[in-house]
Design goal:
The complex is a heterodimer of chains A (about 90) and B (about 600). Chain A is an all-alpha fold and about 90 residues long. Chain A is built from 3 helices and no strands. The chains are: A mainly alpha (about 90), B mainly alpha (about 600).
Chain lengths: ~90, ~600
């Protein structure tokens, strides 16, 4: 399987994180909105957490794919490399 | 509840990625092995997270929150005793046979080890159960979407009748799950389960954090609740001193040894993800990897329920203040179901009289299933609320998807290929698998609609499942570790075990329950302090009867020749050696670490 899950997953969390962070930034003075979350701008802070998680996943996925490509160029696909594609 | 465009955007983004993964995987689906077994090529961490996510359906997220609110931290037994030891056992001792036998499904393993009739029995009951469970999950989701009014504003804006929300919720979720499994098979289901796993954490972790901060941390939670709520083990020696009304034998034997092991070690719903991994060493590591997040889940799913019951109950308040212009009365009106509830948990209302329903001692009955959803609404502002609701939807879908892929595999390999059409082309079986997916989902939808019309159908179905599942572990234990066990023995044991579970239920009744669905429909011989106790002891009886009958019948019948049992029974199989790995990379080392963690968790919750 040569679709590395970390790439779409990283992409999704990066996007969700970016949406929450920017929405949290835009609404950070809205005390009414954040009364429920105890005055904490939950969108901003959790958005940043998700953004970091998403970017980390994305970087790891990219790196993994690059390594696979390099390996494939060095030695043409054999039974063994075929099996290792799972990463 | 008012959702804004940010919330919708997050939800749509999730649907887009879920379907996108399905489309992206379509081109890799070349053989039936790719479709049903994910090509047996996935890395251990992906399968491990999917292993746990397949179980992390709505029943888990909503149910564990409800149970936390009802019984307190004792609910953590389902993790510390019910799940983790069984996950270690299946990884270390059973996976070599599941994975090594090259069986494509759990029923197929039963055919290799025992005989055709044992497989047929297991395949049929399993196929029926998966379809019904995914239907129950669908029904629960549609009801929750209705209760939380998630789509109400959307429907009003579009001018659609709000009476269609139930159907809309069912059709929408069914279409999404159908599409991504139809396209990408088990790989797609597993990938999406991993995505759902992270989404569920992303949606529920801030809930626990905010809730704990509000109630004053762990100590504040302790102060807000009766003392027995915050202990998992204290008071467990006797049934009358703990909220669940069970004793240590019921928990250890019933939950840990029979029910927990029966689920985690034999249910193809979870085992299929381990069997999809790329090699033996990964397959053994899958349940162990899954056990690590499983240990943390009590904080994620049980603690919100505890907080919900610990918070002060809202009451209608009048706040009077005056300034130069006159006197003002600020009245905050709280609906009666909330006022008569406890904490954030509303009372159950009688829809005819509009009054709270009372139990036998005159206290209002609480709608515990609303614990976790109400927590989301209470703490999350718009934005992160969209994320929380998406996580809730994701949990419903991951549970449904696991059932559906388990169903299409068992249907195609164990029923269609074995009894309807043997020896067709691989292409043909893949097409059958795709259409079995469609059929399975249609049947689930029918179950969901049946549940609206027959109130008791869900309870009845779950009861029947428990009869079928309770004795299973004995069959696998004997099959894998005793080479003398025979097919006739296994078959007779299963039938006897299920009958024993049924008879036990017919003869016993929990305290304060009426005969009927709760038991005692033959005659009441014994009363248990709670339905949990009845359930756990029923499982113990089923297991014992299965074990004894299987052993006796096996000794009276002719065993399989030794050479047919290679790879299927422990004494005839060379256990996989991981000597080439450094000690800390071996599955056994991971198992030991998980075990230490589980013990630590039990001490923390003592």
């Amino acid at each position: 399987m040569s679709l590395d899950l970390r790439i779409p997953m990283g992409l999704m969390f990066t996007m969700v994180g970016a949406i929450l962070t920017s929405f949290g930034m835009a609404t950070r003075d809205n005390a009414d909105l954040y009364a429920r979350s105890l005055g904490i701008d939950a969108n901003l802070w959790w958005g940043i957490v998700l953004l970091v998680f998403g970017i980390t996943m994305l970087t790891l996925g990219r790196r993994g794919q690059k390594r696979l490509l390099e390996e494939a160029q060095k030695n043409p696909p054999t039974e063994e490399t075929e099996e290792r594609r799972g990463h | 509840m008012q959702l804004t465009s940010v919330d919708w955007l997050i939800m749509l983004l999730y649907f887009f990625f879920v379907l996108g993964i399905g489309f992206a995987l379509k081109r890799y689906m070349k053989t039936s092995k790719d479709f049903f077994q994910a090509g047996r090529a996935l890395p251990a961490w992906i399968c491990g997270l999917a292993f746990i996510s397949a179980n992390l359906g709505a029943q888990e997220v909503i149910g564990m929150g409800a149970s936390g609110a009802k019984y307190g931290l004792e609910t953590a037994h389902f993790y510390g005793i019910g799940a983790i030891p069984a996950m270690i056992f299946v990884g270390i001792f059973m996976m070599p046979f599941y994975y090594g036998s090259k069986a494509r499904s759990v029923p197929e393993f039963l055919r290799l080890r025992f005989d055709e009739k044992t497989r047929a029995l297991n395949a049929c009951s399993f196929a029926v159960m998966t379809v019904f469970s995914s239907g129950i999950s669908m029904y629960a989701m549609a009801r929750l979407i209705q209760a939380l009014h998630i789509f109400d504003s959307l429907f009003i804006r579009l001018g659609w009748p709000t009476g269609w929300i139930f159907t809309f919720a069912i059709v929408m979720s069914a279409m999404i799950v159908l599409l991504y499994i139809f396209l990408g098979g088990l790989t797609s289901a597993i990938y999406n389960e991993v995505l759902q796993f992270f989404l569920i954490i992303a949606g529920f972790l801030p809930l626990t954090l905010l809730g704990l901060k509000n109630i004053g941390g762990w100590n504040g939670l302790k102060a807000a609740l009766p003392v027995q709520y915050m202990h998992e083990w204290k008071g467990v020696m006797h049934a009358s001193t703990n909220p669940m009304g069970i004793d240590a034998i019921g928990i250890g034997m019933g939950l840990g040894f029979v029910l927990g092991a029966g689920y985690w070690c034999t249910d193809f719903l979870v085992i299929q993800t381990a069997m999809a991994s790329k090699n033996m060493e990964s397959a053994r590591r899958v349940p162990l990897i899954a056990a690590v997040p499983k240990m943390v889940f009590p904080f994620l799913v049980i603690v919100p329920g505890l907080i919900a019951i610990g918070l002060p109950t809202p009451h209608t308040t009048t706040y009077v203040h005056h300034d130069a212009n006159g006197i003002y009365h600020d009245i905050k009106v709280v609906p009666p179901e909330v006022e008569q509830g406890h904490g954030l948990i509303p009372a159950k209302m009688n829809p005819v009289t509009g009054k709270a329903m009372l139990d036998t001692s005159g206290k209002p009955l609480l709608d515990y299933d609303m614990a976790t959803p109400n927590m989301l609404l209470h703490y999350f502002p718009t934005g992160i609320l969209g994320l929380g609701l998406t996580a809730l939807l994701a949990s419903f879908m991951s549970g449904m998807a696991g059932n559906v892929t388990a169903f299409n595999t068992v249907f195609t390999y164990d029923l269609y290929q074995s009894y309807i059409r043997k020896g067709a082309s691989d292409r043909h079986y893949m097409a059958v698998g795709r259409w079995a997916t469609v059929g399975g989902i249609l049947l689930s939808i029918c179950t969901a609609y049946a549940a609206i019309n027959f109130n008791n159908i869900m309870d009845t179905l779950q009861l029947v499942f428990s009869f079928v599942n309770a004795p299973l572990f004995a069959t696998f234990l004997l099959g894998m570790f005793w080479k003398r066990a025979t097919g006739h023995g296994a078959f007779a044991g299963l039938i006897a075990g299920t009958s024993a579970a049924m008879i036990h239920h017919g003869l016993t009744l929990p305290l304060e329950a009426h005969t009927g669905i709760h038991g005692g429909w033959i005659t009441v011989v014994h009363r248990y302090p709670s339905d949990m106790a009845q359930n756990f002891y029923g499982a113990i009886w089923a297991f014992m009867v299965n074990f004894v009958v299987a052993v006796v019948v096996s000794l009276l019948t002719k065993p399989k020749p030794d050479e047919e049992l290679v790879g299927l029974v422990r004494s005839m199989t060379k256990m996989p050696s991981h000597a080439h790995l450094p000690w800390w990379k071996r599955p056994e080392a991971l198992a030991a670490a998980v075990l230490v963690g589980a013990i630590g968790l039990n001490i923390f919750f003592w």
